Amino acid sequence: MRPLLIVALMGVLALTAHAGGGGGGDDPTEKLENVHDLTPDNFEKVVNGAKHVLVEFYAPWCGHCKRMVPEYKKLGELVSSDPKLKNRVVVAKVNADAHRSLGDRFDVRGFPTIKFFPAGKAPSKETMQDYNQARTATAFLEFLKEKMAADKGFARVEALDALAKEFVSAADDAKAKVIADTEAAVAELEGEAKDNGALYVSIMKKAVEKGAEYLTKEKARLEKMLSGGSVNAAKVDEMSRKSSVLGAFGDDDDE
């Protein structure tokens, strides 16, 4: 017998034992403002790598899930009220008792199970992370802020960030030298850093060709496409890396 089926049967027994004995908490299936309800039909659209997503896998009969409803509701409100969080984080929940295919897909073995799906990666068992901290709105929020703080480092090469800033401030006739210096620096890199470094050079050359406005317009274009949920999973990583590197040319350091 599958683990989720065993848990489900335990829940039925618990409901039977407490029939007529009071609610013991809120209803996890309740529609919460600022919290997405996921199903197999919309999961890929919401959890698509465009933003960080925190997902609660719950069962309606689970006592711990019922008691967590107010905290999760509060988390949704906190994220929605913070512009930076709202643009980069999604709070979601899924009835994994009703939609067991999703629970099975992500190795859910009990309720509630909280999973974190990072931005820049297509959802999978390899890229998701288990959330094992306190089940309070405050703890959830701190966890998400820590993940956001780490975003700046995604696909960025510290040694090239200074050259990106130098490129932006350089006069038009001096930009070619900055590009040459960047190419020389990239040549010294290896592996993933070298691949990411190539993006710095490519972006600089595009900015010379299309004008300085390319930097902000291209970043806005990529973020809009990623947020739209229509990007092929295979392209999410590539587009997210480019968007992150473009941040080195803008005001990301001031956030």
From TrEMBL:
GO molecular function: protein disulfide isomerase activity
Residue span, Thioredoxin domain: 21-149
One of the Pfam families matching this protein, by short name: ERp29
Alphabetical list of InterPro entries matching this protein: ERp29_C, ERp29_C_sf, PDI, PDI_thioredoxin-like_dom, Thioredoxin-like_sf, Thioredoxin_CS, Thioredoxin_domain
One GO cellular component term: endoplasmic reticulum
Catalytic activity: Catalyzes the rearrangement of -S-S- bonds in proteins
UniProt enzyme class: isomerase
Biological processes, Gene Ontology terms: protein folding
Keywords: Disulfide bond, Isomerase, Redox-active center, Repeat, Signal
EC number(s) per entry: 5.3.4.1
Signal peptide as annotated in the record: 1-19
Gene3D superfamilies assigned: Endoplasmic reticulum resident protein 29, C-terminal domain (1.20.1150.12), Glutaredoxin (3.40.30.10)
Domain of life: Eukaryota
UniProt similarity note: Belongs to the protein disulfide isomerase family.
Protein's name in the database: protein disulfide-isomerase
Organism of origin: Chlamydomonas schloesseri
